[in-house]
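Fold it.
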Amino acid sequence: MPVLFPHCGKIKDAFVLIDGKSFPYVMIWLNAGASEFVCIEPWFGLSDADNTNH
């Protein structure tokens, strides 16, 4: 299902539409010191736990 993110910049009524149905996981993160940057990463898997031995 597509996700709609409102744009918080200078352009009124702007938005970003993301359709991630091809990806089982999507990570959305931002750097607290750079609020104008948002990263949207499509993922196909999850990382191992810290205590794995491989």
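The mean pLDDT is 75.
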